[in-house]
């Protein structure tokens, strides 16, 4: 009987230790196509958190780029500018849209020209130490998938 309790406890603890990053789905990831000489590109997606706690993306990396930063575009006095973010918060049971004119991934200094139709592998880094590898297709803005007119609140 004691052995059965130990097995049950071990199974429960293993279930609790499941990676929390799996709670965040990365929907419609894409990188905006740019001229071959572009030194910066932007990555977008909708991050959906089905967990009961907010989740934080604290970084991203890719072997295709020298550096990736988390950014938000804001408008001040009629001028849009980008502000680097320490983290992107995905609310519990909610979504965070990474989209043009808002939150996005700033992909800096590609090692080779990036062409429309390619896919770029990015690794998202979460505050709890988990990572998530995602393929981001390169396409023009407005091409590819549609959100069917849905708007995502921040």
Automatic annotation (TrEMBL):
Presence of the UniProt keyword Signal in the record: yes
Superkingdom of origin organism: Bacteria
Signal peptide: 1-22
UniProt keyword annotation of Protein transport present: no
Pfam families in UniProt: PCuAC (PF04314)
Alphabetical keyword list: Signal
Protein name, as recorded: Copper(I)-binding protein
Native source organism of the sequence: Thiohalospira halophila DSM 15071
